[in-house]
Amino acid sequence: MKKIIAIVTLLLIVGVGNSQNNEKRIKFNTGTLKICSSANMKISGYDGDEVIIKSVNNTTRFTTDFKFSDKNSKLRTATDSSLTSPLRVFFTNSDKKRELEKGLKPLGNKSTNPADNLYLDITENPGELILRDYSYAKSGKSNQNALTLKGSFYRIVNKYELLIPNSIKLLWNIEDCAKKNSNTFFVASDSKPWKLENFKGEAEISASYNSISITDVSGPVVANTIGGNITVVFDDITPTNLYSLISNDGYIDVTIPKNASIKVDAVGNRILSDIDFKVLSETISDGTKGMDLELNSGKTKMKLSAGSGSVYLRKG
Fold it and tell me: Against a cut of 0.85, is the pTM above it?
């Protein structure tokens, strides 16, 4: 097959068809789920024994200079959310491949094709399930029919919806995630917050430049973000476990039922509420306000630190 090498500057739009319903189920109901991913996720708890991952189809847009070979092949979508540099996007004859794979499904739990794992690197250990962004560099393989992208590009992060058992512990974007070296500049153009809903287990969430939304999570919960906001809503439940929320350069917004029994330690530029809290103490230091507040008997502790941002406490 004759190969050509060309350098082209263009706008490349790569999409995943809405006709696909990509879902993966993993038996796991005891231990810790660790998620190390920059992808946008909505996570909900349920009384089951499987971690269910569904890919929400999305469009990725690149603006770049690239080299390519093999003029007879078509570009296969590369939607993984933490590609290393140099970025490698592999070619395949997609129409022929789809025809060959029609009616078939991958066997086993391991695959060389990232699409089989919804572009996530999935590791199962005793008492531990780890989800990471897929990296082509992990394979250590080269491909002559490779597309090497150079320069900056912009992409929309992948989106997933997860159902996780209430019996497990969730560590989301934990601090010991492996750092990936890259000289490519990523801009995540999706501003929607990460979401955790209706979960009865313990959760620790850490984010950078992403907002976090938590709804009806009994806790305990530890959540912190740099450059993002944290929103917590208690709709069908009341808080009964420790909540510790930290937002640097963002706001913290908590909706609390009137029958909740909480003691709030709040720090922020401003602290606003329409709830009739009992004010236990109040301080101002270096333009930051600190307050100890109590509602009803103050049984459950809640620590809120918004730094230079504001704290909003609302009636549920």
Answer: no
